[in-house]
Design brief:
single chain; about 280 residues; alpha+beta; Glutaredoxin; globular
Length: about 280
C-alpha cells in the first residue's frame, strides 16, 4: 500500500501548492550517460527519479523527502539522477521500457539496465529511506535466498524472502511462483512470514496497477489473530478499490479494520477518513 490513499478520495489539488523543484543535498547527476558510466565503474545501482512537470506529489517528494538527512545519507549508496519522463530523451525511453505510467516512480537499475527495485508514489522520509536500504541490499538478499534454496528447495523462509524481493523488483510472475510454492509447503510456524509475503506481493501488483490480482493477494493476508497483517491488507484492498472507483465495496474492509483490537493509529486514521469521504459522496 504505497500510494497516498486518502488523496484518492479527497483531493489531489492540495499538492499543487508545492512549487519547489527539488534542490537538496543529494548529488543528482546531470545526464543519464554520466550516471550509467559511474554505475558501471562503481558497481552501484542507478537511482532514477522519474517525474513530470505537472506531478504535485513529485514536488512534495522533492520538498519534503529528499532533503531529509537519512535520505541524503542513503543516496550515497547509489548513483542518483532525476529524469523527466515526458521531456528527457532517456526519461521517455526508460519510462516506456519499464512501463511507468504513474509519478513519482523511482527505479533502481544496475549498469545493464536491469531493474533491481522500484518505489511507486510519494513516501515520507522515514518510509523512503527504509525502501532505499532495501534497494541497496537487494542483490545480497537475492544471492542469500538463492543459495538457501539451492541447499533446500523447500526452505519456506527463503521462498518467501525471494518472493518479496521479486515483488519489489516488479518481477510479479516469479514472485507469485515462489509464494505459491511456499504456501503449498508452509507449516503452522510459517504463518506470519506467509501473510507478510502475501502483502508484499500484493504491493507489487498494486504498484503495477493490477488491482484485481493485488486484492486477491491482500485477501489471503487477512487472518484472525494477525491484526498487523490483516490491517495492512484491509486498508490496501480499500485503496485498490478506491483506485477502481468502487468505493462502496471498500466500506466493509474499512469497517472491519476499525473493529480490529490492535489496529494501528495510522491505518485507523486512514480508514476513518476514507469512510467519511464515502459517506460524503453518498449524501
Amino acid at each position: 500500500m504505497k500510494r497516498a490513499i486518502v488523496s484518492v478520495l479527497i483531493s489531489a489539488a492540495v499538492v499543487s501548492a508545492f512549487a519547489g523543484t527539488g534542490s537538496s543535498s543529494i548529488g543528482w547527476k546531470k545526464t543519464y550517460p554520466v550516471a550509467a558510466s559511474e554505475a558501471k565503474s562503481s558497481g552501484k545501482l542507478i537511482m532514477i527519479d522519474f517525474y513530470t512537470d505537472w506531478c504535485g506529489w513529485c514536488k512534495k517528494l522533492d520538498s519534503d523527502t529528499y532533503p531529509a538527512p537519512e535520505v541524503v545519507k542513503a543516496s550515497e549508496n547509489f548513483v542518483p539522477i532525476k529524469l523527466n519522463a515526458e521531456k528527457d530523451a532517456d526519461g521517455i525511453r526508460l519510462a516506456k521500457k519499464f512501463g511507468i505510467n504513474g509519478y513519482p516512480t523511482v527505479l533502481f537499475l544496475d549498469a545493464s539496465e536491469k531493474m533491481q527495485y522500484k518505489i511507486v508514489g510519494y513516501s515520507d522520509a522515514k518510509t523512503f529511506s527504509a525502501e532505499m536500504v532495501k534497494a541497496s541490499n537487494i542483490r545480497h538478499e537475492i544471492a542469500k535466498y538463492e543459495k538457501a534454496l539451492k541447499a533446500n528447495p523447500k526452505d519456506v523462509s527463503a521462498l518467501c524472502g525471494l518472493a518479496g524481493v521479486e515483488a519489489g523488483k516488479g518481477d510479479l510472475e516469479a514472485a507469485t511462483k515462489h509464494l505459491d510454492t511456499a504456501a503449498d509447503i508452509a507449516g503452522s510456524g510459517d504463518k506470519v512470514k506467509l501473510l507478510d509475503t502475501y502483502n508484499a506481493v500484493g504491493d507489487g501488483y498494486q504498484n503495477a496497477s493490477l488491482y484485481e490480482k493485488a486484492i486477491s493477494h491482500f485477501g489471503k493476508a487477512i487472518a484472525d489473530g494477525y491484526d498487523k497483517q490483516s490491517g495492512y491488507a484491509r486498508i490496501s484492498i480499500a485503496s485498490c478499490l478506491a483506485s477502481m472507483n468502487r468505493l462502496a465495496e471498500a466500506k466493509p474492509y474499512l469497517e472491519a479494520l476499525i473493529k480490529q483490537k490492535t489496529a494501528s493509529k495510522e491505518y485507523l486514521d486512514q480508514a476513518k477518513a476514507m469512510l467519511a469521504a464515502i459517506a460524503k459522496g453518498n449524501s
